[in-house]
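[Primary structure, fold]
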Amino acid sequence: MMQLEGKIVVVTGGAGLLGQQFCGAIAAAGGLAVVADRDAEAAAAVAAAIGARHPGRAAACALDITRKDSIGAAIAALQQAHGRIDAVVNNAYPRNGRYGRLFEDVEYDDFCENVSLHVGGYFLVSQQFARFFRAQGHGNIVNMSSVYGVIAPRFSVYDGTTMTMPVEYAVIKSGVLHLTRYMAKYLKGTGIRVNAISPGGIFDGQPESFLEKYNALCSGKGMLDKQDVAGTLLFLLSDASAFINGQNITVDDGFSL
C-alpha cells in the first residue's frame, strides 16, 4: 500500500538536500517524481540521475514558489504532458542572504521578507494546486514543517558554535502547520488531503559539539539522515494514508519529548 504506482508527484525544491531524496524515493516506489526547482539546470540534472536508476520515472520542471505565473505555467505543462497531477510536496526553502542572524540582529525587513518567501510561497503553491485539484476531483498536498514548528527551540544545543535557530524559521514552520490545518478544513469534502511532516535535524556537516548535544536529547540515532524522512512522505502520498487529513507527523527520534 506504500507504492505510488503511476502517481504524478511534484516536489518543490526538488534539487535540494531533502528534495533529491524525496524524488528518488517517489520514483523507486513507482511514481513519477517531478523535480520542481527554480534552478532549472539543477532540476534537470537531478531528474536525469533519478531517471538513470528508474527509467521514465523522473521529470524536471522550472518552478519559483513565490511567482504565481511560474506555478501556473508548471501546472499547465504537467497537465498537458501527463493529463493529471496527483500530489504536490511543499519542500522548497527560500530565504534571503541575511537569513540566520541572532534574534537581536534581525532587521524587520529581513524578517518580513523571509516569512513571506517561505510561508507565502507554500500558500501560493497550495492555492494554485488546490484550484487544479478541485477541478480534477482529487489531490494531495504535503507540507514540510519542522520539529521547531512544534516545540520551542532548544538553544542550549547551539552553545559553543556560530549556529542559532533563526526566529524566522520558528515562525515559518509553526505557520506552515496551521496553514496545513486551515487548508485541510477549508478543502474538506473536495477530494483533497493536506498533511504535514515535521522532521528533526537533518545531518548536513554540522559541528561535532552541536551533534553531541543534539544527539543526547534523542532516543537512539540522534541527528537524522536525509533518507530517514522519505518513508513518512511515501506513506502520506500513498493510499495507505487515504483517510489521514489535516495531521502533522513528527519524525525526530524523540528529540521533542
Notes: The first strand starts at residue 8 and ends at 12. The mean pLDDT is 97. The CA atoms of residues 235 and 241 lie 6 Å apart. The radius of gyration is 18 Å.
